[in-house]
Amino acid sequence: MNEEFTCLCVDDEPLALEVMASLIQRHSNLKLMGKCSNALEAMERLKQQPVQVVFSDINMPGVSGIDFAKALKDSGTVVIFTTAYQEYAAEAFEMEALDYLLKPISPDRFAKTVKRIEEYFDLRKSGNAEDSTLNEGHMFVKSDGKLLKVNYADILYVEAFADYVKIWTQEDRRIVTLQTMKNMENALPPEKFIRVHRSFIVAIDKIQSVQSTAVKIGNKEIPVGKNYKDPLMELIQKMNLMRR
Q1: What would the pLDDT profile of 163-222 be if each residue is shown by its tens digit?
Q2: Among residues 25, 55, 24, 26, which one has the least CA distance to residue 42?
């Protein structure tokens, strides 16, 4: 039997609450425990009945979804933001949100979020602790209860996953460890890696092509965030000058 995940929806728009409830009820492994029209109501409800996942709007009167997420930090409850506004994305990911859903939310997009929920709680059960040891040419990261050696030369890119990161290496191997993107960015050698998005760090020598909004590594197209575009283009220009 699949594990069931308890959920709470928070939104000041009644129609949006009904849409979220409908999406949740399509998935047998999600159990909707309630709907709240504001963050204060949700916080009171969570004191009485904690849940594993909160789907929260951001732009709400009184306490915003961002401040609500801050209040939930270290509670064990994961937050998935649901909003009509793209501009909140950077701040949402700083809060280590598990996902960021732009309204209107399609069933297919929501299904991907459910997969992220399943994967996240599987990782939590595995008991990965935040741990990494740096050495010249490689690092050790804790994953699946053991320290794994990861050569910098083997890393293709690093992807944010709430309070975990996924390290993707050659041959499409994935290593998941409890670590923040900020710590990972600081740990990786800056001459070999560059952050191109709030959710991605890439190996510079693995970049095959660069577009205005994405870089390509193998078969993966990785988005370039607008706040990271200028440093990336400066790096590419510098590399071109060095090759002349």
Answers
A1: 889 999 987 788 998 888 888 898 898 889 999 998 999 999 999 999 878 999 988 999
A2: 55
Residue 4, SS3 per DSSP: coil
Angle between helix axes 65-72 and 39-48 (nearest 10 degrees) is 20
Q: Given the DSSP bridges, would you call strands 164-169 and 155-161 parallel, antiparallel or unpaired?
A: antiparallel
pTM, 2 dp: 0.65
Measured between alpha carbons, how far is 169 from 35 in angstroms, rounded to an integer? 41
Residue among 113, 92, 86 at smallest CA distance from 20:
113
93 in Cβ contact with 159 (< 8 Å): no
For CA atoms 90, 92, 96, 97, give the dihedral sign: negative
Instruction: Reduce the DSSP state of residue 51 to 3 states and report it.
Output: coil
Domain count, the chain: 2
- Overall size of the chain counted in residues: 244
Q: Indicate the residue among 126, 153, 169 that finishes a domain.
A: 126
Is residue 65 within 8 A of residue 10, CB to CB? The reply is yes
User: Same domain for 96 and 179?
Assistant: no
Here the contacts of 11-15 (C-beta below 8 Å, separation 24 or greater) are: 11/35, 11/37, 11/56, 11/57, 11/60, 11/82, 12/37, 12/38, 12/57, 12/60, 12/61, 13/57
Domain coverage including residue 100: 5-126
Q: Give the three-class secondary structure for 223.
A: strand
Q: How many CB atoms lie within 10 A of CB 239?
A: 12
Best CA proximity match to 157, nearest among 219, 72, 81: 219
